[in-house]
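STRUCTURE:
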């Protein structure tokens, strides 16, 4: 008896096994398929991407034209951002993003909501609801998380974490025989 791979796949997919002779006589009903995202929703709806700009191919690159209005709105949001880098000592246990958020929530006295996003390599993006909250946090400056130090810096338009250079380092110096 040859192996019936179609029947095996049908069984694995939740369809009961039907004999090959019976499969030929039954009319085929197309199954209505929905996406995984639609299955997770309570009511499957399809969202439209009509308001997104259309990509263009220029040479070997894909480019998207963004209107001046959308650019200015995006820049206004970015002006309420800070970046930070978490520096840990060798051997310190790394923090989860949730742990860092909880520690900072206790130290930062902001009036509005704020969020953080891990950018990788110890870098984080902090977005604040208001510029006043950003100024409050910026005034606090470097945050000691014990262990580790979160060093904040301003948002820059062309930030690249792979080319970012550290300008500060914490160093302990012991000067021997130094008179008072």
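SEQUENCE:
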């Amino acid at each position: 008896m040859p192996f019936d791979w179609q029947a095996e796949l049908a069984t694995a997919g939740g369809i009961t096994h039907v004999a090959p002779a019976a499969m030929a006589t039954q009319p085929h009903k197309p199954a209505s398929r929905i996406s995984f995202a639609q299955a997770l929703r309570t009511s499957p709806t399809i969202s439209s991407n009509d308001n997104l700009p259309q990509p263009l191919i220029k040479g070997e690159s894909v480019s998207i034209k963004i209107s001046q209005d959308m650019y200015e709105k995006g820049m206004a949001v970015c002006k309420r951002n800070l970046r930070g880098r978490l520096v840990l000592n060798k051997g310190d246990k790394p923090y989860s993003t949730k742990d860092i958020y909880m520690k900072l929530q206790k130290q930062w006295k902001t009036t509005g909501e704020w969020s953080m996003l891990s950018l990788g390599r110890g870098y984080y993006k902090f977005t604040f609801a208001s510029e006043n909250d950003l100024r409050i946090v910026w005034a606090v400056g470097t945050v000691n998380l014990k262990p580790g130090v979160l060093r904040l810096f301003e948002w820059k338009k062309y930030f690249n974490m792979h080319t970012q250079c550290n300008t500060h380092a914490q160093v302990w110096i012991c000067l021997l025989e130094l008179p008072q």
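REMARK: The longest strand covers residues 81-87.
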